[in-house]
Amino acid sequence: MIDRPVYLNQLSQAIRRSPITALVGPRQCGKTTLARLFAKESTTTFFDLESQLDLNRLQNPQLMLGSLKGLVIIDEIQAMPTLFRVLRVLVDRPESKTRFLILGSASLDLVKNVSETLAGRVEFVDLSGFGLHETGPGSSNVVWLRGGFPRSFLARSDEDSLAWREGFIRTFLTRDIPQLGISIPPAAMRRFWTMLAHYHGQTWNASELGRSLDLSDKTVRSYLDILTGTFMVRQLQPWYENLRKRQVKAPKIYLRDSGLLHGLLNLPDFQTLQGYPRVGASWEGFAIEQLLQIIKPPQAFFWATHSGAEVDLFLIFHGHRYGIECKFSETPKITKSMNQALESLNLTHLWIIYPGEHPYPLSKQISVWPMKDIVTLPEQLR
Q1: Cα gap 53→47, rounded to integer Å
Q2: Beta-bridge mates of residue 304
Q3: Residues 117 and 181 both lie in one domain
Q4: Torsion (CA) 331, 277, 238, 258 in degrees, nearest 10
Q5: Which of the listed residues 126, 154, 169 is the one where a domain comes to its end?
Q6: DSSP 8-state assignment for residue 242
Q7: CA dist., res. 304 & res. 307, Å (int)
Q8: Which residues contact 317 (CB under 8 A, 6 or more apart)?
Q9: 370 plus 269 within the same structural domain
Q10: Last residue of a domain, one of 126, 146, 171
């Protein structure tokens, strides 16, 4: 068991502020465990919508939920989308003091038949798998290889971890997606997911992917949206302004969990991973996910021009602009691209995340920062 105090504090603050808190993230990332741990602090009623018994209890949901006090936790709420309308009615009652914590493995945009909005009534807490801020800096290579899903990270061996991830992928394709009312043959979605793994870290090109899979642009776009909505894929959006340079305006695609990426690419151990031709792309995606978990910026972007200048991650934080490059190299150097980014984006500072041991400056505005110290990077964003 790994403590998750940061998320527990987020839940506490969100539930204090809002009548409904949505704890969202991929399946098996620890949402239920976290919710049950949080529930020990208060009077709680728990519903698991994958349990037939709990589904029977909610045959008349407005009557059932309206009679409860304290904290009510509803797990896998996307299995019963009609509850969104019921929750809106209940929390709008002047006398209502009940707090609802809803857990979901799909974004609300992906859940079909949601007829009523919860805008203004719900606060979101995004949960990912284990990050370096939870596992410690010494586990960097293990988290990178196996990913952050608790059962994958905590497995006895790399072989056991890979077996768990393969089972997760199969279950996700054959059960989880159909439960959302989406009818796609599992084999077709797996081919697409595997193709995305090979494109990890590249700019989205629907036509190229469609030709590779003999699918239309519209179809591959819908597949991408499904994997994004179920927290499997991150579409990192481009930052562009009215500048003279022609800038890239398509998102970059990353598989959010590095362990699933390596499972789809058949990279079973660290030695094989290091020999993979695109190991730098895997490192880049891993570093970006860790940074976003730790910094939690309101928005994050990448920046690139058609002439080749780019920044892997661009953030506006506390009114300042920062750039981050991720380099799988022991001796990263300042590049022409970095200098162009500093000038074009008016960056306060640019950091290079690398797998080495020590932080050091390369110039007044460019610093090298080790992955093992990534937890302390937010202290530099002032």
Answers
A1: 9
A2: 310
A3: no
A4: -90
A5: 126
A6: S
A7: 8
A8: 295, 297, 381
A9: yes
A10: 126
What is the domain-level CATH number for residue 34? 3.40.50.300
Q: For the chain, give the number of residues.
A: 382
End-to-end CA distance of the chain: 34
Tokens of 277: 């031709």
The pair of structure tokens assigned to 140 is 């960097």
Beta-sheet pairing, 349-354 with 366-370: parallel
Number of domains in the chain: 2
Q: How many CB atoms lie within 10 A of CB 62?
A: 14
Helix 158-171 and helix 186-198: axis angle, to 10°?
130
CA-CA distance, 67 to 125, in Å (whole number)?
Answer: 26
Q: How many helices (H) and strands (E) does the chain have?
A: 17, 14
Return the CA Rg of the chain: 22
**Cα–Cα nearest to 145, from 268, 256, 292:** 268
* CA dihedral over 59, 60, 63, 65, signed as positive or negative: positive
Contact, 192 vs 213, CB < 8 A? yes
Instruction: Report the distance separating Cα 162 and Cα 282, nearest Å.
Output: 17
Enter the tokens of residue 35.
């919710």
Note down pLDDT in tens along the chain; length 382 residues. 688 999 999 999 999 999 999 999 999 999 999 999 999 877 899 999 989 999 999 999 999 999 998 999 999 988 888 898 899 999 998 888 899 999 998 887 766 545 456 778 889 999 999 999 999 888 999 999 999 999 999 999 999 999 999 999 999 999 999 988 888 999 999 999 999 999 999 999 999 999 999 999 999 999 999 999 999 999 999 998 755 667 888 999 999 999 999 999 999 999 999 999 999 999 999 999 999 999 988 899 999 988 888 999 999 988 899 999 999 999 999 999 999 999 999 999 999 999 999 999 999 999 999 999 999 988 887 6
Could you count the other beta carbons within 10 Å of the beta carbon of residue 106? 24
Burial of 175 from C-beta contacts in 10 A (0-12 / 13-18 / 19+) = exposed
